[in-house]
Amino acid sequence: AQSVTQLGSHVSVSEGALVLLRCNYSSSVPPYLFWYVQYPNQGLQLLLKYTTGATLVKGINGFEAEFKKSETSFHLTKPSAHMSDAAEYFCAVSDHLTSGSARQLTFGSGTQLTVLP
Amino acid sequence: NAGVTQTPKFQVLKTGQSMTLQCAQDMNHEYMSWYRQDPGMGLRLIHYSVGAGITDQGEVPNGYNVSRSTTEDFPLRLLSAAPSQTSVYFCASRPPGARYGYTFGSGTRLTVV
Questions:
Q1: Distance between start and end Cα atoms, chain A
Q2: Interface contacts (A, B; CB < 8 Å)
Q3: Of A43, A46, A101, the CB nearest to B90
Q4: DSSP labels for A47-112?
Q5: Which of B102, B103, B106, B108 to mutate to test the interface with A (most CBs of A within 10 A)?
Q6: What CA–CA distance (Å, rounded) separates A25 from A107?
Q7: For residue B44, which residues of chain A lie inside 8 Å, CB to CB?
Q8: pLDDT tens per residue, range B3-49
């Protein structure tokens, strides 16, 4: 069965510093991987995704993530944090819940990012 | 283009009451799902549908029913609300092809007292 582990439920960085949010996954099939962002009292917005091809993927708002199959990781990074990046971030893997079923998303427990002035 | 619309945004129920959370999408997406979000647990899949007339259970289906009579609508029914169902509920949709990410609604915050 698929699973997602996000290391660190809370991460704090200073404005202008590197953002690194960690995600490790397990999947029974070649994974499709996603990062979503959730601002307070809002739904989830897709930041970026990996399906096939280039392992370094770029998303919105300057974020990027690298798929590393050997490490089963899909860490999210941004070179320079901005105050507006403060939000909760979710990593998700798309996999089959049961044999033959359609792929569905399994989410990690989330990382709350705080950006300090 | 409204995307995924959920109603109501907030709801308070008494234990044992029933209600339906509404979800509608205008993107002609075949796949729709319901998730619940609880602190520290991420989002967990309740039920999903791969097209009109086809539904299946997710990770936490107990206490919830769904139906899919049209492509656009995917209501979630709570048959007899319990305090453990206090949560934020999200509906999402996507086209066929798992490489597409889901588009999420803005959520329904449900409190069961």
A1: 41
A2: 60
A3: A43
A4: EEEE-SS-SEEE-GGG-EEEEEGGGTEEEEEESS--GGG-EEEEEEEEEESSTTSPEEEEE---EE
A5: B102
A6: 10
A7: 107
A8: 999 999 999 999 999 999 999 999 999 999 999 999 888 899 999 99
